[in-house]
Design goal:
It is built from 7 helices and 6 strands; from the N terminus they run E-H-E-H-E-H-E-H-E-H-H-E-H. By secondary structure, the chain is of the alpha/beta class. Belongs to the DegT/DnrJ/EryC1 family. L-glutamine:2-deoxy-scyllo-inosose/scyllo-inosose aminotransferase subfamily.
Length: 220
């Protein structure tokens, strides 16, 4: 995609650091330099204001990744690209499950209406809930990881969606300030919301989380 767009040596490409390394690796393979920009805390997608701040005269493109079923603000990014002269390329997450979206949305609404002690995702009309991602308040990663272990011990599967932001990886390490990316990596936890789940399984998720969530208080 980058090569077809004419992106190559000497160019910069703005990418998110919250996610896997594949996008940044693709930029390097094209001969360009990946530049990391921060995310919007509600969508986990690139923040257009952060992209504007990261862009330079050498910026040839921005790669937008739609995350967890959330849609990035492509309209604002395209307007920015037109003003500053760079391309906006979109990449959806791999293996996006289109089947069962309405059922997942119903499951997500059920969880959001009953979970306590965690910060549930914003209700968005176009959110497909490829992953149902909550935030565990408290002292960041230590509390989130302890919460995850306790929930798994109660028989509920959960996982950390992004363990290490790309700008922290040795091959891409950058001295860059990405506070929302860092916070998301430390606080987020994905809970099951598969279309095949029964109401009893959803109730088990709620019971396991609510028994623990009230024990964690935001750090001051």
């Amino acid at each position: 995609m980058l090569r077809v767009a004419g992106v190559g040596t000497g160019d910069e490409v703005v990418v998110p650091a919250y996610g896997n390394a594949e996008v940044a690796e693709a930029v390097v393979l094209a001969g360009a330099l990946p530049v990391f920009a921060d995310i919007e805390p509600a969508t986990y997608c690139l923040d257009p204001d952060a992209v504007a701040a990261a862009a330079t005269p050498r910026t040839a493109a921005v790669i937008v990744v739609h995350r967890f079923g959330n849609q990035a603000d492509v309209r604002r990014l395209r307007e920015l690209g037109q003003r500053q002269g760079f391309l906006v390329l979109e990449q959806g997450e791999s293996e996006t499950p289109y089947e069962g979206i309405e059922r997942r949305q119903a499951h997500a609404a059920y969880l959001s209406g009953r979970l306590s002690g965690v910060v549930t995702p914003d209700v968005r009309e176009k959110h497909s809930y490829q992953q149902y991602v909550v935030r565990v308040p408290g002292n960041g990663r230590p509390d989130r990881d302890a919460f995850a272990r306790a929930v798994r011990a109660k028989g509920v599967n959960c996982w950390v969606p992004v363990k290490t932001p790309v700008h922290r990886l040795p091959q891409f390490r950058r001295d860059v300030c990405l506070p929302e990316t860092e916070r998301a990596a430390d606080e987020t936890l994905a809970l099951p919301v598969d279309a095949s789940m029964s109401r009893r399984e959803l109730q088990r998720v709620v019971s396991a989380c609510n028994a623990l969530g009230g024990l964690l208080q935001p750090a001051f």
